[in-house]
Hints:
By secondary structure, the chain is α+β, with helices and mostly antiparallel strands. It has one domain (4-170): Aminopeptidase (3-Layer(aba) Sandwich), CATH 3.40.630.30. 35% of the residues lie in helices and 34% in strands. It contains 5 helices and 7 strands; from the N terminus they run E-H-H-H-E-E-E-H-E-H-E-E. The chain has helices spanning 13-28, 34-44, 47-55, 107-121, 136-144; strands spanning 4-7, 59-66, 69-77, 90-98, 126-132, 148-157, 160-170. The protein has a 7-stranded mixed sheet with strand order 1-2-3-4-5-7-6, with helices on both faces. The longest helix is centred in the first third of the chain and has 16 residues, at 13-28.
Amino acid sequence: MKIKIKTVQVTDIDKLVEISRQTFVDTFGMQNTAADLKRYLANHFNEIKLKKELANPDSQFYFAESGSRVVGYLKINVAAAQTEPDYPHALEIQRIYVVEEYQQLGVGQQLLDWAIKKAVQLKKTAVWLGVWEHNLLAQQFYLQAGFLRTQKHIFTLGNSVQSDWIMTKILEE
């Protein structure tokens, strides 16, 4: 499936809030409590928080669009915007999510390719991301794309303390 990748603007904030919440719940809703999800969504995917993230010059958001519908999104970080300090010469993929009915159609791959292209343009030596240790499908996707598990970090969802694999892909020069 061919998509259009579009830079998210502050005027798109309502769409960004909606797709962020929808895809997060689709991905993690079955494995977490409703209370933890509600708390996480309220704290991380609200208009004020997302506008602040959009305003950060070291972060970029992109929508994946099929026709006029937003079917996924990507958030990348460099420099101080990264969620871990250990990767100063890398680009972080902080979020890459696809609406459930558009998964397995190549949308995620196109977003990943876009992020890697951006990393190359920025002369980064690697791309890294965190993926929940129980999200085996996503881990397999990244392993097939050349990422390796390099370490773990803690991710707190509501009151639930969880572990994410940090996966890294070294870029060819």
